[in-house]
Design goal:
Order of helices and strands: EHHHHEEEEEEEEHHHEEHEEE
Structural class: alpha+beta
Helix content: 25-40%
Number of helices: 8
Strand content: 15-25%
Distance between the termini: 9 Å
Shape: globular
Number of strands: 14
Number of domains: 1
Radius of gyration: 23 Å
């Protein structure tokens, strides 16, 4: 996941909030239509029919027409994809449910505006992303933008910070079948892993933890925590004898590998971007906007 902090001007901050409300409203209407369905009743409308209904609603309600049609249609597309995943027998997921104010603040927009990319770089540390009704909004170019970006999601966290992010779950759950010329290996095992990842709902878990403990949840980079001895601090990949056992090659300390890694994280031995260890703990940060690119 690639996440970037948005830097909107005061005049630009109103538009994303309106988009969040409209996307949530359209999504919840789609949920209501599908919740109404029962055996024997006419099937709920699909994506194309819902788009036609959206066009009619925009003609009847000026407040809805004042928003971005692209944002509202994308909410319907996201719902249609969520329903497809729900009915997929190979990779079943949870049924799409209601979105709530203050908890589900976000919207997705496509990655192109005509023939021009909607993400562009201004300097070494600054870029711009196109947000409907707000124009070009600056963001911190904290990491390279992934190649092949086609859409991006703008969202607000509970602290009032906006983000643009790119979720890489699709890459993690990519099929291992390969091609007839180069067949994949351990295809069945990889399919089972993919189902487990999609079923786990990692994003939902993080969100719920942040709701229960606001300001106390920190995302730690786990690099080398499974290779570092929690007793003496020695780092050696050979100490990880297996998936379950850790035996330090320096001091001989023996422990469950997962417990050893958890102790390193709890002790603040997360690895920084420069490769050194730093003390783990919440940092004081000002409110910020963030976005994710996909």
């Amino acid at each position: 996941m690639s996440r970037y902090r948005l830097l909107p001007t005061p005049a630009q901050e109103a538009a994303p909030q309106v988009h969040c409300a409209h996307a949530r409203y359209v999504w919840n209407l789609a949920v209501e239509q599908h919740r109404y369905w029962r055996p024997g009743r006419k099937s709920a409308p699909g994506y194309l029919e819902q788009c036609r209904q959206l066009t009619q609603a925009r003609a009847e309600h000026p407040w809805l027409a004042a928003g971005s049609q692209m944002v509202q249609q994308q909410a319907l597309r996201d719902f249609a994809q969520a329903m497809t995943a729900f009915f997929d027998p190979k990779n079943p997921t949870g049924r799409p449910s209601w979105r709530k104010v203050g908890r589900d603040e976000g919207f997705r927009i496509v990655g192109r505006r005509g023939q021009q990319w909607s993400v562009r770089r201004l300097s070494r540390k600054t870029g711009e992303v196109w947000v409907p009704k707000a124009g070009w909004v600056r963001f911190r170019w904290s990491r390279p933008v992934p190649p092949g970006v086609k859409s991006y999601r703008v969202m607000m966290d509970r602290a009032g910070r906006w983000h643009v992010e790119n979720l890489q779950i699709g890459n993690m759950t990519r099929s291992a079948k390969g091609t007839p010329e180069n067949p994949g290996r351990n295809v069945r095992q990889k399919a089972g892993l993919n189902r487990g990842i999609l079923r786990s709902g990692w994003g939902l878990l993080v969100r719920r933890l942040e709701q229960k403990a606001p300001g106390r949840v920190e995302k730690i980079k786990p690099a080398f925590t499974s290779q570092r001895c929690s007793a003496c601090g020695h780092v050696d990949r050979k100490s990880r004898e297996s998936q379950a056992y850790f035996v330090c090659t320096a001091c001989g300390f023996t422990c469950n590998a997962d417990v050893n890694a958890a102790r390193n994280i709890a002790a603040g031995h997360a690895v920084t971007a420069r490769g050194g260890f730093r003390a783990a703990g919440p940092e004081s940060r000002e409110p910020q906007l963030l976005a994710s690119l996909t």
